Predict the 3D structure of the following.
Amino acid sequence: MHRATASLSIVLLSASLLSAADDLKTVVDNSLKAMGAENLKTLVISGQGWDGCVGQNYDANADHWRKFSNKDYVRSIDFDARAWRLQRVRGEGEAPGRGGCNAGPIPDTPQNQVTVANATAPFNAQMEFIMLPEGFLKVALEKNASVKTEKVKGKNYTVVSFMGDKAPVNGYINEQGYVERVETKISNDVMGDMVWDVDYSNWKDFNGVKFPTHILQHQGGLQFFELNVSDVKPNATVDVTPPAGRGGRGGAAGRGPGRGAPAGPISEDLGGGFWLITGGYASIVADFKDYIVVVEGPQSDMRANQIIAEAHRLIPNKPIKYVINTHAHFDHSSGLRAFVAEGATIVTYKANKSFYERVFRNPHTLEPDTLSQKNPQPKIKIETMDDKKVMTDGQHTIDIYRVQNSTHDVGMMIVYLPKQKVLLEADEFNVGAANAPAPEKPNPYHVNLLANIERLHLDVDRIIPVHLPNDNRKVTMAELRTAAGK
């Protein structure tokens, strides 16, 4: 009798828990109440931290994306308007200052930005709102989210899920009723189906509202954003009017920086079996005896396929055997997978090998690319180099050199065509307007590139920046010397 009563009690308890889990509104209301946020209209969060630039770290094998410090960080949120003002002093976050997204060290710069994350905003901006504990619950209710219970690492959670852009958004509510974690997936040309998550910890009471004092985001498993919260003001006056002369901005992107969709390939004969491919980021195509070599597979899967098509048009009936990668930053490696689909071997700095082998096997289901459609489990061929590599068939020669003392990327390469006296470089000399005067304070990238050319005794008539000049002019050594203050 006692056993039957106990069994019935367990069944009734399980049914009660399941009923509560199935009731989205109850779950949301209970969580908002637990956090003291049931009447929350605005929130002002203050603290110190940093944010990252995806795909621009100095070393591809780092555990975080390229860092920028966020000093005096204040985010003022209006939940009803789905908008916030972000005020901060953003500056160098690496020690020493290295990596992409501008030449480091980055000076401290005050910023005052307003973002509106309504339904028409870019999904990444919407995610910045959803990745607030209260924002997640509000959107989950609107989206008629599903609810289930789940145990993760021995802890019980109520998991609330709804469809985001192309993947589910999941929120994990702990036994105290706090939203402890939010996660989704976004597409990235290099990383594939990339997890974007945020963890909340060290909760504290701020005038009746419970809020985490430590916020940590990851993209693709790497640290992307961190904030140590020092103060939270609930229902304070918030002004989300955009600053004069500026509109609202979009959210943090999961892609590396780019310059829009490529316009289409245009080839220029460099002589001796070499062509420059423009119409986007620059690449060079070389006609070796039995195969094709391409220098740089940049920008996107679409751009890479344009370069591949132009290479086969210029040099029919030969395979693309090699693609030379100047460095691992995502805007210079986002097309490599298309070359892998062609059967090409990637030539890159030795430290990039393990990174590419790992991430190129990630699934690309959110936005299938050429490689995922041709071979979801590809065999990736990578040939590494250190300070110098010479590629030749006896008639055509390509010299590849590592840029010493580069603060942009640990494995930055320049490519020199000795017969043509042409040097291709990426990011070390991104040229501006023609006939620009010598700067008072030269960009350290320019100074270092010139020093490397002189160290290697390269006879250069023309420099081809992968980021081509807007006027398509031919860049000379004289222009580099001027930019370097020489």
Q: What stands out?
A: The first helix runs from residue 2 to 22. The first strand starts at residue 42 and ends at 53. The chain has two domains: 21-234, 266-483. The chain has eleven helices and 23 strands.
